[in-house]
Design the sequence.
């Protein structure tokens, strides 16, 4: 198989990386980074977004135009505490609050449609949502009210409605955080939680939303917790564990879409490893897309490390082609196969009115994903 747009597989290893950056505008430094790495995706955080929607759209347009192979442009827009677009569209309800409403299915659909409208107006292709974790609102797992609840059938139903509404509008939905962070006693942004649930409980409860939605989600994000009941190594995050990514998600569940890691700069990952070692470990575990959300040094280490590993035979050529094939298929469907969303002040105003009608309350607690 030839690489993306005629490049060889080795030359296309940058497509495995989705990266973050500093600043709110297009700069020569950002242009150099995207040219040198040629990433498959770019992620925006609160540090990149102001209250001026035209600033956001100008930035995403510049990123889109930066290459003949435009990268996916992604953001975390779950609602509630995790709402990158809050400066533009105002407060949005958390998933837990939506699930508690008597009209939960209608509210979730309206929330997802309004979110997708705003995302498309601002030039985003990918939303790192819905959350498929099982969690109550006060659980100490870094999830809390970001989840649709603790009942796996309810979570599967509401997350499925959310994902379908996003995708009808042309936004790639990403289910997260496989195989589930509900049982964590700490936040993976700061530490490596050891989830002591039994294999039977994990398969019956935490994995039920993934089983039901495996054909409906174009992408799944792997979390960074450790699961002794599912892994042989008790000090290894799931994102670096072949037993989780390849054996469980790919083989047992039969998932065929894109597999993304969570941010490999988070506290659950050994930061004594350089970016190249982190990227190679996650790729060997089975991930297609490797996230580095801030450090340019680690991003460049990852790009150089992956290319050296591919050219030196440390990565099986067939395995690399397999991931590039999935990435290329996603690109054909979601980028090349769709017209880019049009900026519309009216569309943003309509989205804001929907959010206001859902009566969001002030988000309780900090955003654990902020990375600012």
Sequence:
């Amino acid at each position: 198989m030839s690489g993306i747009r005629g490049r060889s597989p080795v030359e296309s290893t940058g497509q495995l990386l989705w990266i973050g950056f500093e600043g709110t505008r297009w700069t020569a430094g950002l242009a150099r980074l995207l040219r040198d790495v040629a990433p498959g995706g770019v992620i925006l955080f609160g540090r990149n977004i102001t209250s001026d929607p035209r600033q956001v759209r100008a930035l995403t347009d510049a990123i889109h135009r930066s290459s003949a192979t435009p990268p996916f442009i992604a953001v975390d827009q779950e609602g509630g505490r995790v709402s990158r677009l809050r400066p533009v569209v105002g407060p949005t309800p958390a998933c837990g609050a939506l699930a508690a409403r008597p009209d939960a299915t209608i509210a979730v659909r309206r929330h997802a449609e309004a979110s997708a409208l705003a995302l498309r107006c601002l030039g985003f292709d990918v939303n790192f949502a819905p959350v498929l974790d099982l969690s109550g609102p006060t659980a100490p797992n870094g999830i809390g009210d970001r989840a649709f609840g603790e009942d796996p059938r309810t979570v599967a139903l509401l997350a499925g409605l959310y994902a379908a509404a996003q995708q009808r509008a042309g936004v790639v939905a990403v289910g997260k955080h496989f195989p589930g962070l509900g049982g964590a006693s700490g936040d993976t942004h700061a530490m490596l939680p050891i989830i002591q649930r039994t294999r039977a409980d994990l398969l019956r409860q935490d994995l039920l939303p993934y089983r039901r939605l495996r054909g409906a989600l174009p992408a799944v994000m792997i979390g960074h917790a450790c699961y002794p009941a599912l892994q042989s190594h008790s000090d290894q995050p799931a994102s670096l564990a072949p037993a989780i990514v390849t054996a469980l998600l790919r083989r047992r569940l039969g998932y065929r879409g894109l597999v993304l890691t969570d941010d490999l700069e988070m506290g659950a990952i050994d930061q004594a490893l350089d970016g190249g070692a982190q990227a190679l470990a996650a790729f060997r575990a089975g991930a297609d897309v490797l996230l580095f959300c801030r450090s340019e040094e680690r991003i460049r280490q990852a790009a150089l490390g992956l290319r050296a590993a591919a050219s030196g035979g440390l990565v099986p050529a067939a395995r690399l082609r397999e991931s590039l094939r999935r990435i290329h298929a996603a690109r054909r469907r979601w980028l090349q196969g769709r017209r880019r969303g049009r900026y519309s002040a009216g569309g943003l105003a309509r989205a804001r009115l929907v959010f206001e009608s859902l009566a969001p309350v002030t988000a309780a607690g900090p955003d654990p994903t902020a990375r600012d």
